[in-house]
């Protein structure tokens, strides 16, 4: 009886195990099927919405990415096609198209230097790309106007710098005015230089993340906007326009590295810049600025300063290390303050071991000239005309050689002629 009971127990255990085993297999198979289904669904969804793809096709058509024959003037148009239904631009690796990590959205159209010709479609097309972060068509041939960019609230970079042909002309360029940028609060880079844009520069106060703005070489009018809120700027270029008014305050832009506003009609004085310890290039030449030179005595990054062709007055102070100045301009390579009304004594150049270009001609500098430091003998310089008295300068020829790279040194003149700047042979180095 005991043996029978044991056998029944064994049979039951085996049966249960068989049942449980069969169920486990079925459950595992069901789970595998579900995983497969969800994976397939996920893969099917890992593609931008059709609205984004069709918007991209419309942009490609507007920029002549393809013609009816499938050819293109682009240097590279890989992936751009008129297939129906359209290919996945993320999986198909359309040239210049960037997608997010999950291939769910188009985030960039980056096609610089690609011989792209055409116009930008209107805002209704761009509105279908709400996740777009980057638009870069630099050095292509884009014409027409800039669309309303407020439909792209996440945009970080808008760059369409014009290109020119071998004759220096612009066969295609942006025209019209710059639209409002107020809604682009995430924008970091705006580069639309070398076009034919007109009108004024829009308000920038809401663009607190802006790091680069280049609107140079256009036909813009009006004033330079206030930059109080744009404290993240590092590169600013307003040069070669028709801008009027005064220069904006700059001291609050702590990380500013490059500021260009030359070639305009700006008036007033140059704002303080001495606190900008990262500033390396400062160009405000060819304006109508008045007042003194800005204090630059302790700017360790400064290497290129151009204040020429203005109406600046007062002395040239604190270039070298003579008291009360310091050696804070040790990286200075070029300085041009020519064509102003600067006076006072000739500045010392001691401590400026990297200086290569020095232009102070057409000013009112007086007094004796300082000897040329030996380490600067190959410097290209232009100091005349100025009403300087150059008498009693023994040995000056030892410091200022008669020629530099085959050009007459503007300091050099016949022996014994050092009594007037007018008697020194001068070479122009424009």
Automatic annotation (TrEMBL):
Domain of life: Bacteria
Transmembrane segments: 24-44
Entry keyword annotation includes Transmembrane: yes
InterPro entries per the UniProt record, alphabetical: Leu-rich_rpt (IPR001611), Leu-rich_rpt_4 (IPR025875), LRR_dom_sf (IPR032675), StomDev_PlantInt_Reg (IPR052941)
Protein name: Leucine-rich repeat-containing N-terminal plant-type domain-containing protein
Keyword Zinc-finger carried by entry: no
Coiled-coil ranges (or none): none
Species of provenance: Pseudolysobacter antarcticus
């Amino acid at each position: 009886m005991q043996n029978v009971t044991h056998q029944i127990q064994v049979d039951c255990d085996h049966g249960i195990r068989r049942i449980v085993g069969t169920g486990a297999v079925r459950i595992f198979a069901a789970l595998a099927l579900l995983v497969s289904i969800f994976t397939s669904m996920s893969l099917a969804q890992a593609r931008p919405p059709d609205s984004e793809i069709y918007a991209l096709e419309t942009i490609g058509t507007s920029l002549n990415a393809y013609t009816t024959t499938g050819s293109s003037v682009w240097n590279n148009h890989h992936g751009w096609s008129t297939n129906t239904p359209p290919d996945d631009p993320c999986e198909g690796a359309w040239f210049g198209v960037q997608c997010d990590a999950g291939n769910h959205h188009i985030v960039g159209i980056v096609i610089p230097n690609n011989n792209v010709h055409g116009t930008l479609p209107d805002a209704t097309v761009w509105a279908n790309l709400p996740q777009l972060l980057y638009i870069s068509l630099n050095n292509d041939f884009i014409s027409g106007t800039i669309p309303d960019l407020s439909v792209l609230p996440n945009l970080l970079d808008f760059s369409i710098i014009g290109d020119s042909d071998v004759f220096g002309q612009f066969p295609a360029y942006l025209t019209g005015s710059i639209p409002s940028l107020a809604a682009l609060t995430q924008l970091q880079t705006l580069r639309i230089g070398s076009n034919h844009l007109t009108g004024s520069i829009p308000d920038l106060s809401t663009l607190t993340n802006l790091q680069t703005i280049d609107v140079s070489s256009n036909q813009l009018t009006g004033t330079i906007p206030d930059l109080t809120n744009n404290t993240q700027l590092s590169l600013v270029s307003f040069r070669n326009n028709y801008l009027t008014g005064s220069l904006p305050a700059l001291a609050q832009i702590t990380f500013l590295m490059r500021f260009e506003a030359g070639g305009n009609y700006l008036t007033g004085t140059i704002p303080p810049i001495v606190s900008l310890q990262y500033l390396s290039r400062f160009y405000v030449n060819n304006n109508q600025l008045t007042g003194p030179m800005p204090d630059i005595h302790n700017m360790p990054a400064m290497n290129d300063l151009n204040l020429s062709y203005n109406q600046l007055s007062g002395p040239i102070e604190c270039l070298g290390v003579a008291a009360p100045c310091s050696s804070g301009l040790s990286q200075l390579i070029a300085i041009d303050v020519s064509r102003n009304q600067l006076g006072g004594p000739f500045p010392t150049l001691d401590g400026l071991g990297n200086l290569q270009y020095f232009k102070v001609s057409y000013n009112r500098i007086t007094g004796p000239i300082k000897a040329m430091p030996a380490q600067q003998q190959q410097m290209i310089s232009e100091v005349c005309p100025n009403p300087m008295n150059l008498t009693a300068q023994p040995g000056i020829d030892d410091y200022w050689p008669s020629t530099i790279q085959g050009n007459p040194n503007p300091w050099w003149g016949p022996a014994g002629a050092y009594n007037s700047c007018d008697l020194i042979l001068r070479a122009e180095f424009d």
